[in-house]
């Protein structure tokens, strides 16, 4: 179990850890108390992964430039 | 001589040109005739002047042609001439009257033939590879699930559409498009600037920093894709801290940016596939993992429950475990009261045995015996002390007597006499020595007197001195003095002063002193 805060994990990190937790649980060689902790940690990881997957919003913008050609802001791009 | 003079006269009616006039005429002729030409040749010496102008030669096996491209023209060239390159230069011929030269002003440079272009590409690739720009250890992994994807491409056309479609199918994300020209003279510069620009974005800045960059372009001829072979693009891609996927041209086209990028995708669509995972698959994988998690916990609990039941079944009954011990306890506690009674009566009998023999008369008798012994000792104590004192006194007297008997008096007497004798002898010796010294002193004094001049005065000699008291022994010395002093045995006489008596009088005090 890594010490990193679940909320700060990337999807990949959280998913990897969740799979590790589940395999540990499945092996059944951890003490009961620890397996309860693992189970709960797994629930947190799953929630985090789910949230990351739900944030699947498409937002397309093009960069706009000032007179010198330096990026100034963005303008939404639609219909592509 | 006459020949030389004759010649000019013969042609004197032909017009004369100044140098500038003829130069201008030649310039007009050349520019008019070769207004637009394409010339093929190998590039010779190339000079990039600080002014921004470009000077180079093109040549074949016999001739050389000087070429110029002014600052503005040089910037627009799609191919920068390099020494050894086979090119086709397009432009017009002109002259440079300052050096009696003709030259070509170049508007466009194209690599002559695909073979030559590929050769140049190969050379550039080798050079950049030697710098390490393509090293595998420079490659970064693309992120598993980027939050923001920066796409460097043309904002219109199939490429961006393909990318967005595929992203939408797989995992919709935030996409920032950095519009660039994907061919032509501005292409390389804009693409390089876009890559550098995305890298310059900071986390939490006004514009979100992408965690992945895709540089994409559709298929085209090698000339169309040429911008992606330019050094500035390759260097920008290699230096990018943000992982970069290149997707330029069709699968079979390879540009130099593909070697410098972290991942080369064969098409823009493939780039989008590489960029994001499929969301639905991840959801399914998450669901599966979730059910495994719940199942694993259930299995773990069931297994432990089962094991608990098994073990508890095998556990013996409580009565059976405790019965025997209970019996031993019962037995012991039953025996306890009688054992205590027995112990007490045993003790009591031992006490009465011991106290039976203990009577007062026994103690009184032993007290009486001890009393008698004390009285006896007390009586003997006083006489014993007196006896001991006497003995000690006797010892003392004996010792004292021994000291009295020693004859000290005669010894003292003898020492006294010795002392007086010594004293008398010392006095005598001292006196004798003193007399001896006195005599010696007198004799020495007498000797002193006879040796001194004063004794001779008695015998009729006299000492003559000058007024300053110096002794005069020569006549000439005496003459120089006005006054003279003559010392006799009984006094001094002064001569040559106002009165001799006066002089002797002044000396009288001294004489009187010495007389006394």
Mind explaining what this structure looks like?
Chain A: InterPro entries: Exonuc_VII_S, Exonuc_VII_ssu_sf. Chain A: One of its GO terms (biological process) is DNA catabolic process. The complex is a heterodimer of chains A (80) and B (516). Chain A has 2 helices and 2 strands. With 80 residues, chain A is an alpha+beta fold. Chain A has a single domain, classed as Helix Hairpins (Orthogonal Bundle), CATH 1.10.287. In chain A, strands 1-2 form a two-stranded antiparallel ribbon. In chain A, strand 1 and strand 2 form a beta hairpin. Among the domains of chain B are: 19-112, OB fold (Dihydrolipoamide Acetyltransferase, E2P) (Beta Barrel); 139-277, Succinyl-CoA synthetase domains (Rossmann fold, 3-Layer(aba) Sandwich), CATH 3.40.50; 286-313; 457-509, no CATH class. Chain B is flat. Chain B starts with a helix and ends with a helix. Chain A binds chain B through residues 10-12, 15, 18-19, 21-22, 25-26, 28, 32, 35, 39, 42-43, 46, 49-50, 52-53, 56-63, 69-71, 73-74, 77, 80, and chain B through 143-145, 155, 160-161, 164, 167-168, 171-179, 193, 197, 206-207, 279, 282-283, 285-286, 289-290, 292-293, 296-297, 299-300, 303-304.
């Amino acid at each position: 179990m890594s010490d990193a805060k679940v909320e700060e994990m990337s999807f990949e990190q959280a998913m990897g850890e969740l799979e590790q937790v589940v395999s540990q649980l499945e092996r059944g060689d951890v003490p009961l108390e620890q397996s309860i902790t693992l189970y709960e940690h797994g629930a947190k990881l799953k929630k985090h992964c789910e949230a990351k997957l739900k944030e699947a919003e498409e937002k397309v913008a093009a960069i706009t430039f000032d007179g010198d050609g330096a990026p100034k802001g963005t303008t939404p791009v639609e219909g592509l | 001589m006459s020949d030389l003079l004759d010649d000019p006269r013969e042609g004197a009616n032909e017009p004369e040109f100044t140098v500038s006039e003829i130069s201008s005429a030649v310039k007009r002729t050349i520019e008019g005739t070769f207004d637009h030409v394409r010339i093929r040749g190998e590039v010779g010496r190339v000079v990039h002047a600080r002014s921004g102008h470009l000077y180079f030669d093109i040549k074949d096996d016999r001739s050389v042609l000087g070429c110029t491209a002014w600052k503005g023209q040089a910037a627009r060239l799609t191919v920068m001439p390099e020494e050894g390159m086979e090119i086709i230069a397009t432009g017009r011929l002109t002259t440079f009257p300052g050096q009696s030269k003709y030259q070509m002003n170049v508007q466009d440079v194209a690599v002559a033939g695909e073979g030559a272009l590929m050769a140049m590409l190969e050379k550039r690739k080798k050079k950049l590879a030697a710098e390490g720009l393509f090293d595998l250890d420079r490659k970064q992994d693309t992120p598993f699930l980027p939050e923001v994807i920066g796409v460097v491409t043309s904002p219109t056309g199939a490429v961006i559409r393909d990318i967005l479609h595929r992203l939408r199918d797989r995992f919709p994300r935030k996409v920032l498009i950095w519009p660039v020209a994907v061919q032509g003279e501005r292409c390389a510069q804009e693409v390089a600037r876009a890559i550098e620009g995305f890298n310059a974005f900071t986390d939490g800045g006004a514009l979100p920093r992408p965690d992945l960059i895709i540089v994409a372009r559709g298929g085209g001829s090698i000339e169309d894709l040429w911008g992606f072979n330019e050094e500035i693009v390759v260097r920008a891609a290699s230096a990018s801290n943000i992982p970069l996927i290149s997707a330029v041209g069709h699968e079979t086209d390879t540009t130099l940016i593909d070697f410098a990028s972290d991942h080369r995708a064969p098409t823009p669509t493939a780039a989008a596939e590489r960029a994001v995972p499929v969301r639905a698959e991840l959801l399914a994988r998450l669901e599966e993992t979730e059910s495994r998690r719940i199942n694993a916990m259930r299995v773990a609990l069931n297994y432990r429950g089962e094991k608990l039941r098994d073990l508890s079944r095998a556990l013996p009954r409580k009565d059976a475990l405790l019965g025997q011990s209970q019996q031993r306890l019962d037995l012991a506690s039953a025996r306890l009261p009688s054992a205590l009674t027995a112990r007490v009566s045993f003790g009591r009998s031992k006490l009465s045995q011991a106290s039976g023999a203990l009577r007062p008369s026994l103690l009184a008798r032993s007290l009486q015996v001890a009393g008698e012994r004390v009285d006896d000792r007390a009586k003997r104590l006083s006489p014993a002390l007196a006896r001991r004192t006497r003995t000690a006194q006797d010892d003392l007297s004996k010792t004292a007597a021994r000291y009295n008997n020693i004859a000290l008096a005669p010894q003292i007497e003898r020492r006294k006499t010795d002392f007086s004798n010594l004293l008398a002898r010392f006095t005598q010796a001292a006196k004798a020595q003193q007399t001896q010294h006195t005599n010696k002193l007198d004799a020495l004094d007498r000797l002193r007197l006879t040796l001194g001049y004063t004794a001779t005065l008695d015998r009729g000699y006299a000492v003559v001195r000058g007024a300053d008291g110096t002794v005069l022994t020569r006549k000439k010395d005496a003459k120089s003095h006005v006054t003279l002093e003559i010392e006799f045995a009984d006094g001094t006489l002064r001569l040559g002063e106002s009165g001799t008596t006066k002089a002797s009088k002044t000396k009288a005090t001294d004489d009187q002193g010495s007389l006394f």
